[in-house]
Amino acid sequence: MKKKGNTALNALGSLKLTVALILFIAVLCVVGSVFPQESSVTSSGHGDGFRIPFLLGPYDVFHSVWFLGAGLLLCINLALCMMRRLKPKKRSLLMLLLHSGVLLVIIGYAIGFMGLDGYAEIPEGESVSQVVLKDGSVYDPGFSIRCERFAVDFYGNGMPREYTSDLSFLINGQVADRARVRVNHPASFAGISFYQESFRDLLSAVLTVSDGKQPATFTVSEGDIIPLPSAGTRARVVKIWHDLMHAGPAVKLLIEEGHGGWFVYVFRDIDVIISKMPGLLEAMPAFDPSGFHPYTFSCSEVKHSFATGIGVKRDPGAPLAGIGGAIFFLGSLLACFLPPSSGPGRERAPVQEAAHGPARAATKSKES
């Protein structure tokens, strides 16, 4: 039994297993870079039965059973290698240093799973107090984040070149700190890092609805619902355009009544459009703002703003992984400059040469 146990320990601490595990992890990293990683899918309305095959697949490699299992096995392998090489020699201590660095990096990565990885979308001028995590749950950091200002610069082809967010961090309604976040230039507050990840356009419209008696004005965004006086009737805001078909700002409404629905396009400049195209409303009834009797819809303004997408992260294992990386780098430098240790054969060579030296000298004297 003892021999079998030693055999198992030797196998776990072998260099072949180290190389195999590193290659396997490298292959998993390649798979993770080829397939889109969608860790948030695991909690988007699916049960635990869905998570098991998902964690075995290629779409969340860095949280998969394969990646975590290989990392754990590599930790055990490195620990056993370190125990077998604890000898008071320069080369042994150097190998111990290298193994310790790799081990600290792996442990730091594992601790990172206990950190925070989420996302917050903040409309310009507004604040949020919760962060949506990758698994779909909601996290309360204990303070609010407000986007004071968002700015974006574009290339000539319309692609965004750079975008920045001026953030304020509020505790009990009071500004505790301010920071500017740019792409690849995060900010930190309360031990949490904030990254500029994305942005999107926000359009809102000012609509007036009249039933011939009392007009009502609403400021709406896409997805909002406008209640109408008739029982069971409402208008849903489907889409808002800043410029639809070069005809100016417009809003697309879905009038829902019972089991039916009608689309109505509300243009801000409908009078100008009709003057240029007199037969438009007869050809396109959906463009008639009074087409759904007895209501008349009008759009007075379309406002444009931005919502900034902020990545919210906290990695408690990052310092440990950084220390491990520094130790490994130091060990690698020492390995380059440290002379190789002398083996047994090299130590005996001078003795043998000294022993045969007189005989060789006598032979040379006889020959001469």
Automatic annotation (TrEMBL):
Q: GO terms for CC?
A: membrane
**Pfam families (alphabetical):** ResB (PF05140)
Where is each ResB-like domain found? Answer: 15-88, 95-259
The record's keywords, sorted A to Z, are: Cytochrome c-type biogenesis, Membrane, Transmembrane, Transmembrane helix
Q: Region (Disordered): which ranges?
A: 342-368
Keyword Nuclease, does the record have it?
no
Topology relative to the lipid bilayer, per the entry, is: Multi-pass membrane protein
Write out the transmembrane intervals.
12-35, 61-81, 93-116
* BP GO terms, sorted: cytochrome complex assembly
- Which InterPro entries does its entry note? Cyt_c_bgen_Ccs1/CcsB/ResB, ResB-like_domain
Subcellular location per UniProt equals:
Membrane
Protein name (Swiss-Prot/TrEMBL): Cytochrome c biogenesis protein Ccs1
Protein species of origin: anaerobic digester metagenome
This protein's encoding gene: ccs
